[in-house]
Amino acid sequence: MITVILKHHKEESLKRFHPWVFSGAIYRIEDEFGNEKQPEEGDWVRVVSDSGEFLAFGQYQIGSIAVRIFSFEEDDFDETFFVRRLQSAYELRRTLGLIRKDNNAYRLVHGEGDGLPGLIIDVYDGTAVMQAHTAGIHYIREALAEDLIQVAGADIRNVYYKSETTLGYKTEARQEAEAEGESVNGYLIIDGKPVTSREAGKQLESTISDVALENGLKFHVDWLKGQKTGFFVDQRENRALVEKYAAGRRVLNMFCYTGGFSFYAMRSNAEVVHSVDVSKQAISFTNANVELNFPGDERHKAFAADAFDFLDGKCPGSLFEAGKPGYDLIILDPPAFAKHKKVLRNALRGYQRLNAKALEKIRPGGILFTFSCSQVVTKDDFRCAVFSAAAQTGRRVRILHQLHQPADHPINIYHPEGEYLKGLVLYVE
Ligand code: SAH
After folding, report:
1. Residue 173 C-alpha to ligand 1 middle, in angstroms?
2. CA distance 219 to 210
3. Is 122 touching ligand 1 by the criterion CB < 6 Å?
């Protein structure tokens, strides 16, 4: 195996089990004979200190994070390694009570949070949607899919691989696939058996159910065309909290995507539920989900509109139009405003502007659910942006709940970067 030797004193973060090695920390890389070696992306490497002490095993990648660590134990890395890690991820979801008759949508693997850097797996009623964020995971995707079937038994019958947008543009893995004129996306396993050709896969695809259950509500999940793995499983518990407050209220679900929050509000007898998303596709997903859960229910209306236009009362039919009563429960769940530290300031201004608009418009006694899923925006940054927004409106605002990602998106305690979703529930007078 290839050995990555760190510079003097650069072993400190690995000794605290942080799972990344940055390229700047590397002194030299050698093959098994001690010759200098340039690894290929996805190669397995041992990482040692400058004095030769074993530190960890990981996968090499090209870029500022040069090695993603899978294990800190020297004899841990054998042919059962991935089965053991997947087993542990699966056991945790069982412990969390997420695999039930009325709930079969959950995140099974959350990257570093499950000791499997670069790998995301979401499960929707027997279909696992697998996403690689590194070339290393891409190269072992088929073996991982088979391990998954072995671990989950009857709970997972199909594995769809979806990494077109998550594998870096520069990775050879992606370039290779594209040079052959093929998308990297496709089924790896259908009905428990590996898919041998795309043609064979196509024929079987129509047998796969695309309806998953979350807390008893039904959702079409379009992993072929939808965002991320097709659905945002990370808001499950926060949606359930909306259900507690929505009875009798006029609810606005802003940035609705497939409409998740809206159906919890409808189930709790909200008076009106309006779902808004700028994407027409998202609105058609939402409307299809209304038909699954509350066919013909006139309390719901979906709007394909920009958030600010809607909040400014520019959309016919909204309750922000002149003479209409407005909303008394608003959900703001925008896409990540900052993907990098460099744009953090702008993102914070964006959160402030958006929240100020909603806080200005919400009816007295209203409840605002507001979120940020930007990893680079900390809990404190976000709270500060919302605080500034509140101060700008001058309204009396109290924090009722501080929300976060659910337990099937666990945070490795040694890897605080895994924390990304935060939210506040505010009572506005
Ligand atoms: N709340 C959703 C997830 C939201 S994802 C859920 O529970 O599943 C963010 C959504 O914001 C995306 O669907 C995207 O299309 C939408 N969006 C992005 N920019 C927008 C804008 N300016 N106005 C309205 N919607 C927007």
Report:
1. 30
2. 8
3. no
Q: What is the Å distance from ligand 1's center to 335 Cα?
A: 6
Q: Does residue 19 fall inside a structural domain? A: yes
Q: Give tens-digit pLDDT for 313-346.
A: 999 999 999 999 999 999 999 999 988 888 899 9
d(CA 82, CA 355) in angstroms, rounded, equals 43
Query: Can you give the CATH number for the domain in which 284 is found?
Result: 3.40.50.150
124 lines ligand 1 (CB under 6 A): no
Q: Does residue 255 sit in the same domain as residue 362?
A: yes
**Choice among 56-60, 174-178, 365-369 with the minimum mean pLDDT:** 174-178
Domain that holds residue 262: 232-428
The tally of domains found in the chain comes to 3
Q: Taking residues 69-86, report their average pLDDT.
A: 94
**Same domain, yes or no, for 41 and 138?**
no
Of ligand 1's listed atoms, the one at least distance from the Cα of 235 is 7
Q: What is the CATH number of the domain that holds 19?
A: 2.30.130.10
Quick one: which H or E segment has residue 43?
Answer: none
Domain of 192, CATH number, reads 3.30.750.80
Residue 221 lies in a domain: no
Same domain, residue pair 263 and 391: yes
For the chain, the farthest-separated pair of C-alpha atoms sits apart, in whole angstroms, at 80
3-state secondary structure (DSSP) of residue 214: strand
CA distance linking residue 21 with residue 427, whole number of Å = 44
Chain-wide mean pLDDT for the chain?
94
Model confidence at 170, in pLDDT bands (50, 70, 90)?
A: low
Cα(27) to ligand 1 centroid in Å equals 44
d(CA 15, CA 301): 54
- Tell me which range, 219-228, 335-344, 368-377, is most confidently predicted by mean pLDDT: 368-377
> How far apart (Å, rounded) are the C-alpha atoms in residues 258 and 287?
8
Answer whether residue 318 is part of any domain. yes
